[in-house]
Amino acid sequence: MTHTWSPESAEFIAPDEDFAGAPLLRKEFSLDLDHGPVRSATLVVTAQGIVEPTINGAAVSQDVLTPGWTSYEWRLRYQSYDVTALVTQTSVLGLALGNGWYRGRLGWSGGRAFYGPELAALAELQVEFEDGHRQVVGTDATWQAGPSSTVANDLYDGQTIDARVGSADWTRPGALLEGWTGVHPVESDLGRLQPYLGPPVRRQETLRPSKVWTSPAGATIVDFGQNLVGWLRFTVEGEAGHEITIRHAEVLEHDELGTRPLRTAQATDRFVLSGGVDTFEPTKTFHGFRYAEVTGWPGELTQDSVEAVVVHSELRPTGTFECSDELLNQLHRNVVWGLKGNFLDVPTDCPQRDERLGWTGDIAAFAPTAAYLYDVSGFLSDWLVDVDLEQAHAEGMVPFVVPDVLKYMEIPRDFPDPDSTAIWSDAAVWVPWALWEAYADRDALARQYPAMVAHARRVEGLLSDTDLWDTGFQFGDWLDPQAPPDDPIKAKADNGVVATACYYRTLRQLAAVAEILGNPDDAGDFAALADRVRGAFQKHYVTDGGRVHSDCATVYALAIEFGLLDDADRLGAGNRLAELARENGFRVSTGFAGTPFVTDALTSTGHLDEAYRLLLERECPSWLYPVTMGATTVWERWDSMLPDGTINSGQMTSFNHYALGAVADWMHRTIGGIAPAAPGYAQVRIAPKPGGGLTWAKASLETRQGVVATDWTLDEQGRFALRVEVPEGVEARVELPDGTQHSLGGGHHELSATVAEAG
Ligand code: BGC
Known about the structure:
The protein is of the alpha+beta class and 759 residues long. A hairpin with a 1-residue loop joins strand 28 (343-344) and strand 29 (346-347). The longest helix is centred in the middle third of the chain and has 22 residues, at 495-516. The radius of gyration is 27 Å and the shape is globular.
């Protein structure tokens, strides 16, 4: 809901003392008399920092870590809450602040407070009475500020809560508060304020420990059985001043907490007991963890003592997948958990180490998968606003991360100067395109169009005379498994091939978008530019028979899937890709660029069997290797953990990175058999392709048109039976494994075919 802010009603205020980065702000007020009962009360609130609003001590909403993270320089979001049920004749409006992204640590350089030195809040409570009278209580100089029990808080490093500090009384009218101070106004551009476009972050579920034990070094370790993002919550009683320390980690190494992958993130929460019964929940931080090491627990720590609270953006699950191979099911669950952990307000690379940034390339790879698993339209559209803003302030350049904090970080000298880079900057086009395919929201596409064009035009200026994008810095096929652990940029795939292929894809999508938006001139221009780039690609990078320069799986995957090859070359390229897969023993040999497309490229060139072999391979590097190692999320590297149980020595060894999980998109479309035949699934393509020894699979997707579902079995005689559910008013174009085609309308259908070679 859009709110009109006026400096007369409310102004940003900051506490006169910092109160350890977690000040409380309060305002006691009485409702105006003689206007009858309150008809409605709405609180509109935001902060420079994070804010938890209360009225008379009651939480105003379930949201946490609000107002989240946006490109604060130009956009700060606010939330509106209906608080009619909470307001009483005399009330206390409370705002508990924390550092969050605004003033906490961001990035790996150790820097903090990139957006400003001071925490501040802006709130306006609007009360409407029965007789139409309106009363406004806004943040102003009359508010008071005081200490909370949080004595340290940082997203990376953790939170310290001292239950002896602060007073629970602060939310009570008339409370006598010692050590409280005044507040002062803070200059701030109200023009930056915008309502949330996407969902808030909330607690989603809780998990109990699956195991508690003592490590060889004598540490008490709790295993939640699932790598997750959030925090621990517990109620405890013990001596006043006694401290409980909790360290978090995603993995164990040598049976102890494996914290090295967190780099400088301390991920440590501390709780100091009051002497009475204390309930602790550190809501001003978050950790990526499966294991917690608990020190100082009074008495015996059992599975009932603590719980893990899973936190992420509020998203509606829409897609499911299941099949007869339990390892694939676990891989799929890992992809889902990877999304949960990294969709915490911003689509991040990882949720645990001193990074947690909106790396654009990661979501460029993962967006289609995400858009199947959850309704991510609001979440990603919201983030795309910041992509636009960053870009608009950087001459069309889409930065490596959004919100872009790299521009504030002290970056090591060997880090590239920022400029448009393939895949990462292509996120400005690929992500809106993925949303268009899933949801067909024309307005959303139109909103993104200028930014898409700006990106394409900027890259046009970076092409060399040959029309290839073979200039400047590229991440390229980042994290090629054959690159040395400490030099993940040393890929086999030629950067020019990768970048030019990606640019071609971008131009094709952009031409299509221009067409959709009724802009034939642009469509023609981009199509012509695309043709030129394709011609250059073929001339410089493709030799007879479809050999592509640098001859590795990634370049074939991209050339095939992005449509850079003529028919004969495409066939040759597919054969070469299949040959490479076989020669490599079906281990994955692609990095960020090639991995999302390699199974599709094999499938679409007639090598379904090789696609399945690649997917089902268990030796490292492969998708299933981490699953056999007990992974419960998708890892950043195929071998983030080595077969001997030690952690990969590279600096980047997250155990929760969604990018390589993009293969789930292939699983949905090829095993489950569900794909859009028209944007937003206005028409559906149902084409399950059994293989890999699977005997059954089912998938379902709640589209904007209704539920699409498939459910197939394959018996030893090769009898394939398919059940399909199609939403009313939608046409499903079905292709069975024997090649027969059917057109179905809404409803439930059963079809069958005989598959030549079962499995
Ligand atoms: C991130 C990646 C990211 C990459 C770019 C890493 O540190 O974790 O996922 O895309 O840098 O090079």
